[in-house]
Amino acid sequence: MKTTGGETKIQKPKTKRGKRALQAREPKLVEDPKRALILFGGKTSQVTKDVLSDLHKLKTAGDSVKYTRKNDDVRPFEAGGDTNLEHFSQKTDSSLFALGNHSKKRPHNIILGRFFDHRLHDVLELGVDRYKGIKEFAKAATAVQLGNKPCFVFVGEGFENNPDLRVAKSLLLDFFRGRQIDAINLKGLSQVIFIMATGKQLLFRQYAIAFKKSGAQVPRTELAEIGPKLDFTIRRSRAAPEELQTQSMKQPKVEKKKEKNVGYDSLEGKVGRIYMPKQDLNSMALNKMKGLKRERQTLAADAAEKKAKLATAADAD
Asked: pLDDT class for 79, splitting at 50, 70, 90?
């Protein structure tokens, strides 16, 4: 896409490599795992750094990129403050980000957001009121294996009614859901992420699942808190522009392969047609009925008797 004199022109790729790169960015039925970009603002507190480090640990290996330098120009809620952020997104191929900063007006600030086509989609600003890191749950945290998919529990009517909480729910699901799969083994369920909404507060908890013997087919489950333990306050949010939202929800068309000799009937459903060559039933070795066997025996006896009569008549002449 190229902008000249206020007009936007779409440039077609000139090489096969460029065409493949554009095809890789097109919508897919099964999307690639979403990578998160973790970075610091101009000024950060120790609480903010620890929270971002824990968020980085919660993402599976390879699905998170962490920048340790300060970024004064990254301000997603201000005009022009998202330019460097979108550049970092394109550089690291990230579709999620978590930005930490700290100021007197907004202490211990965490900003979560998403990209679509490396353009800023929606943003949510959270304030950390209470924090207990993963390090303080060291023994329980060893029970969780890396790469396992968590269960999500959202408690509160606000997740359905409040627009800020709807954005928060969607963002948190995208952030921690991991890779998209069709089925999961019961033993792979090793953690639960519990999020509760009370007013403008979000309570974030994570628990490890332990399966115990119960004497029945279904095991008894026990939960142990593994951290991080976070209490957030929603400060600001910005929904995606309507045009960008429409583009992000677009799904690719699935072209079904045409099946030969297959039709559909309103009563029988799927009906198939089979083409067979012409067959001679008289020359085929088929299982005959017993009644037919007797008929053949009588015909053979009659033919033998007729042949014998003809032979005796010939001898008499």
From this structure: confident
- pLDDT of res. 44: 93
Dihedral of CA 109/105/168/67: which sign? negative
For residue range 115-137, what is the model confidence (pLDDT) as tens digits?
A: 988 899 999 999 999 999 988 88
